[in-house]
Design a protein that fits this description.
Largest sheet: 5 strands, parallel
Distance between the termini: 44 Å
Order of helices and strands: EHEHEHHEHEHHHHHHHHHHH
Strand order of the largest sheet: 2-3-4-1-5
Radius of gyration: 22 Å
Helix content: 55-70%
Structural class: alpha/beta
């Protein structure tokens, strides 16, 4: 019985799933034999019933379950660097019975367990590794991200200059969904020639908002130098420190909301509506940031942002000095 665990970056996960289904001859499974489930809304017994059923007029029964690993992340109360969460004392989930039943499932069942980023110590992940093919899809960073951009453009029949690669990765980071969409647009725009940095600056609409996301990423990861560099770019483009602080405050508020909704089992299609975010880019970036910090940590950072905002408005600190101190403080506390 083929079973796969595919987790990590959502773009790479989607690519890996398409490849696995194609290799297994399951790309065109009949809809009646294709079960899509969300772990937070599904009982393990329901999933087992689907997995143990034989296909109807087809060679395979495809069962895709999203978020099984995440249930154990929440139940264990440890995510990322071992931070405590509000569900630290929650009981273990019932999904282990599904894991243990995998060897007895029919050979005609193709089980796909799909998840986002989880910790290496996730107990379900360790147990699944004994029965499934595990595909970890980590988003590229640094030089690896630059190479990914270059290959992506080449796959689209184009080419791109190193400064253009640097510009677009600084704007968008490693949000591969957005990068892929923007690279597709740039490749069409620059047909017959290389994509250049001016092309990126002119066509990519996420420049300022993406710099805020990248700066918050740097803050969360404890990289004040990178955060200050990104925020300095915004000021060079005419953005005032108070505007930048307001954008950081807004993003922290969205992160807190995303974290709370995720812990309450709200699935991604519904998250955007509840967050008041119409952009998939905003939702995906915010979810990625929310996974890396606890609600108490977000609250502390949010309070520090409000204090900085008040210090500027009361004239106690120069705006640029206050912004630099804020970023150093927030990143130092990561």
């Amino acid at each position: 019985m083929p079973a796969h665990v595919v987790y990590g970056d959502s773009f790479l996960v989607a690519v890996a799933i398409r490849r696995i289904l194609q290799d297994a001859g399951a790309s065109d499974v009949m809809e009646s034999n294709h079960h899509r489930m969300v772990a937070a809304q599904t009982q393990p017994a329901e999933a087992l019933a689907a997995c143990n059923s034989l296909p109807f007029l087809d060679a395979l029964r495809l069962v895709e379950i999203e978020g099984v690993l995440a249930t154990e992340e929440s139940a264990g109360g440890q995510r990322g660097r071992g931070r405590a969460t509000r569900r630290q004392t929650a009981p273990r989930t019932g999904w282990m019975q599904v894991v243990e039943a995998i060897p007895q499932m029919p050979d005609t069942t193709l089980l796909m367990l799909v998840d986002g980023d989880v910790t290496d110590g996730n107990p379900l992940l360790r147990a699944l590794a004994e029965h499934c093919q595990v595909h970890k899809q980590a988003a590229p960073t640094g030089q690896g991200l630059n190479q990914w951009v270059k290959r992506s453009v080449e796959d689209k029949g184009g080419s791109i200059t190193p400064p253009a690669i640097q510009a677009i990765t600084e704007m968008i980071g490693n949000d591969l969904w957005t990068l892929d969409r923007e690279l597709e647009k740039l490749s069409l725009y620059a047909t017959g020639r290389e994509i250049t940095e001016p092309d990126v600056r002119a066509l990519v609409p996420y420049a300022q908002e993406a710099n805020i996301f990248a700066a918050v990423d740097a803050i969360m990861d404890g990289r004040p130098g990178d955060a200050l560099r990104l925020l300095a770019q915004l000021m060079q483009e005419g953005r005032e420190p108070l505007y930048i602080i307001a954008m950081i405050e807004r993003q922290l508020r969205l992160i807190a909301l995303a974290r709370d909704l995720t812990e309450r089992g709200v699935v991604q299609p519904e998250l955007g509506r509840r967050m008041g975010a119409n952009s998939d880019f905003v939702v995906r970036k915010t979810l990625g940031q929310a996974r890396r910090v606890s609600l108490p940590e977000i609250s502390l950072k949010y309070q520090r942002v409000l204090e900085s905002d008040l210090a500027i408005k009361q004239g106690r600190l120069d705006p640029e000095v206050s912004l630099e101190l804020l970023v150093a403080d927030l990143a130092g506390a990561a």
